[in-house]
Amino acid sequence: MSSVTGVVLFVITVTGGLVAFLLRRRRESGSTKTSDADALWVQTQALMVQLSKDKDRAEEQRDRLLVLQSGTLLPALGLVNETLVSMKILLADVSQKLDRILAVADTIKGR
């Protein structure tokens, strides 16, 4: 009986060790403690930080460009608007003069 007991203990020990190994492997399979996953995680975090910095820098450049352009664009738009108003006034004046000329021409024809 002692050899049967030894075999049973051996099987129980091996089975227990195997179960413990499998449970630990399953628990750590999604962990970032493994070398490949950890290295990939560190690289991903570094890329995320760099992309965030690049995004912030691009937004700052965009804002500076908008400020610079608004300094030159708004006065230019004001000048265009003033020119359009002047042209509208001149066109109205020319239209009135043309109406007078046509009225005189109709009067001359009617004689």
Q: Beta-strand level of the residues, as a percent range?
A: under 5%
Structural Rg:
44 Å
**Largest β sheet strand count, sense and barrel closure:** none
Q: Portion of residues in helices?
A: over 70%
State the distance separating the first and last CA atoms. Answer: 149 Å
Count of beta strands? 0
Q: What is the structural class?
A: mainly alpha
Number of helices: 2
Integer average pLDDT: 84
- Our count of domains comes out at 2
Order of SSEs, N→C? HH
Shape, please?
Answer: rod-shaped
pLDDT < 50 runs, ≥5 residues: none
Using brief descriptors, characterize the structure shown.
2 domains, about 95% helix, single chain, 2 helices, about 0% strand, about 110 residues, mainly alpha, rod-shaped
Describe what you observe in this structure.
The protein has 111 residues and is mainly α. It has two domains: 1-39; 73-111. The protein has helices at residues 2-28, 35-110. The longest helix is centred in the middle third of the chain and has 76 residues, at 35-110. The protein starts with a helix and ends with a helix. The mean pLDDT is 84.
Compact description:
By secondary structure, the chain is mostly helical. It has helices spanning 2-28, 35-110. Helices cover 93% and strands 0% of the residues.
Topology:
Blueprint lengths: L1 H27 L6 H76 L1
